[in-house]
């Protein structure tokens, strides 16, 4: 994911006169977005769409700063597009680069199925955070306790208890999906939203509180996702030295976490139900 400058040069020299490569009009990079650095010498249109934090593969200070410089070069060419697949990543790129980043969300209409209120399955699906998060079980226990307390007929089952493998048509047969999100944007959420499945998420205040205590949104930062240990600051500073926006990689400050969680897909889209 992080080829050396020598390899990048070899890549260009190998492909610069390649017949098929010369038919290419546009290079598109999603994951990792930084791989678009390889294509800069070809002088073609470049579309960068970060589906997660854009510094993936550029984790040292020098590598990240170099990628920021190259990304600003890409963005300066009107042929090119620098985008986030979601508002969180668009704002994240803007914070570190100053680029006015476009949001290009996924449509996911390939699912070809749509939720209907006449469900054939009674279970509400529970999609937990990562398996090692102990709070998943506690949450489900407390939810089921509340269901019994109020004497409702709701049945909630974890997704993987219901299906080892599932198809889209399986999901739309259930009344709704309840989330403890491990990430601010995932393709599954795009798909389920497109399928019109009712979605339930913690309110932003509740998720901020739970994240501080239990690391719910575990993949929000690369430090946490890759090492299991969050940090209280990024290794590089904001592009704007006078910015009052809190550091997006601070995993120990309530205000910072809450500020950035507001950009999560499930707090941006209408028709999602929140619980406290």
Seen as an oligomer or otherwise, the chain set is single chain
Q: What's the mean pLDDT score?
A: 96
How many strand segments? Answer: 9
Fraction in beta strands: 5-15%
Largest sheet composition? 5 strands, parallel
Label the structural class: alpha/beta
Number of helices: 11
Q: Return Rg in Å.
A: 21 Å
The amount of helix comes to: 25-40%
Q: Could you say which overall geometry the principal axes of the C-alpha atoms support?
A: globular
Number of domains: 2
Based on the structure given, which CATH architecture of the largest domain is correct?
3-Layer(aba) Sandwich
Spatial strand arrangement across the major sheet: 6-5-7-8-9
Distance from first to last alpha carbon: 40 Å
Transmembrane segments: 20-42
Keywords: Membrane, Transmembrane, Transmembrane helix
Overview of this structure, please?
With 276 residues, this protein is α/β, with parallel strands linked by helices. It has two domains: 5-105, no CATH class; 111-275, Rossmann fold, CATH 3.40.50. The chain is 36% helix and 13% strand. Strands 6-5-7-8-9 form a five-stranded parallel beta sheet. A four-stranded parallel beta sheet has the order 1-2-3-4. Strand 3 (81-84), helix 3 (87-97) and strand 4 form a beta-alpha-beta unit. Helix 8 crosses helix 10. Keywords: Membrane, Transmembrane, Transmembrane helix. The chain crosses the membrane at residues 20-42.
């Amino acid at each position: 994911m992080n080829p050396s400058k020598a390899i990048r040069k070899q890549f260009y020299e190998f492909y610069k006169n390649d017949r098929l490569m010369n038919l290419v009009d546009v290079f598109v990079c999603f994951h990792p977005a930084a791989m678009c650095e390889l294509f800069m010498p070809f002088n073609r249109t470049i579309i960068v769409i970060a589906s997660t934090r854009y510094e993936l593969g550029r984790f040292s200070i020098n590598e990240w700063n170099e990628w920021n410089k190259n990304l600003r070069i890409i963005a300066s060419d009107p042929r090119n597009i620098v985008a986030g697949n979601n508002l969180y990543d668009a704002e994240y790129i803007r914070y570190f680069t100053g680029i006015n980043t476009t949001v290009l969300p996924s449509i996911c209409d390939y699912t070809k199925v749509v939720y209907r209120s006449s469900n054939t399955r009674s279970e509400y699906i529970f999609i937990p955070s990562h398996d090692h998060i102990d709070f998943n079980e506690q949450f489900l226990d407390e939810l089921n306790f509340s269901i019994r307390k109020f004497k409702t007929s709701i049945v909630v089952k974890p997704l993987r208890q219901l299906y080892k493998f599932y198809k889209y048509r399986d999901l739309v047969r259930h009344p709704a999906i309840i989330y403890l999100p491990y990430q601010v944007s995932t393709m599954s959420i795009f798909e389920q939203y497109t399928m019109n499945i009712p979605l339930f998420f913690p309110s932003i205040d509740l998720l901020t509180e739970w994240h501080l205590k239990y690391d719910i949104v575990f993949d929000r930062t690369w430090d946490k996702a890759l090492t299991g240990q969050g940090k209280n600051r990024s290794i590089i500073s904001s592009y704007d030295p006078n910015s009052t926006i809190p550091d997006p990689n601070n995993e120990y400050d309530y205000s910072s976490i809450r500020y950035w969680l507001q950009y999560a897909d499930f707090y941006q889209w209408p028709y999602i139900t929140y619980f406290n």
